[in-house]
Amino acid sequence: AQSVTQPDIHITVSEGASLELRCNYSYGATPYLFWYVQSPGQGLQLLLKYFSGDTLVQGIKGFEAEFKRSQSSFNLRKPSVHWSDAAEYFCAVGLPFSGGGADGLTFGKGTHLIIQP
Amino acid sequence: NAGVTQTPKFRILKIGQSMTLQCTQDMNHNYMYWYRQDPGMGLKLIYYSVGAGITDKGEVPNGYNVSRSTTEDFPLRLELAAPSQTSVYFCASSKDRNYGYTFGSGTRLTVV
User: Fold this and answer.
1) A72 or A99, which is more confident?
2) What CATH number is given to the structural domain containing B46?
3) What pLDDT is attached to residue B1?
4) Structural domains in chain A (count)
5) CB contact under 8 A, A102 and B45
6) Could you tell me if residue B112 is inside a domain?
7) What does each C-alpha distance from A55 to A32, A70, A97, A117, B47 come to in angstroms?
8) Minimal-distance CA residue of chain B relative to A90
């Protein structure tokens, strides 16, 4: 079964500084990859997704992520964070085909982003 | 455009009670999902549906039941509530299985 690891439970970044959130997955082939953001008391919102093609993916709110097959990683980046970026961030993987187990995305445990003024 | 609507937003249940969490989407999505979110544990899939009349178990289905009589609605039923079911429940829908989900705002359930 596929799995997702987000090594950092909490990350603190100063406003205006750059950000990188790490995500590693375990799967025999290249899965579909997603990043979601959850503001306090809210549902999850899709930031970006990777299916195939260009390994650098652009998303909403100025975020981007890079797929690195050799490292089984899909790290999320932002050049300059804003206080409104403080939230919980989830990486998720989906199988490129159905069958062999439960469908649906597998989520990491999340990284809590704190923005310092 | 309402998206995915979940009701209620909050609920307190006593041990052994039952309840239904409602989920409705207006995007004509075939795929719908129920997840539970516990602190520090990410989201775990409870049940999912690939279309009206078709449902299947996810990773943590015990203690829950679902039905999908229409494309729009995907209610989650809790029978004999237990403290272990205290959690935040999210319903989501998608156009296709890996298209990217639209989530509801969640139901915070406490079992006492």
Assistant:
1) A72
2) 2.60.40.10
3) 65
4) 1
5) yes
6) no
7) 12, 12, 20, 32, 32
8) B42
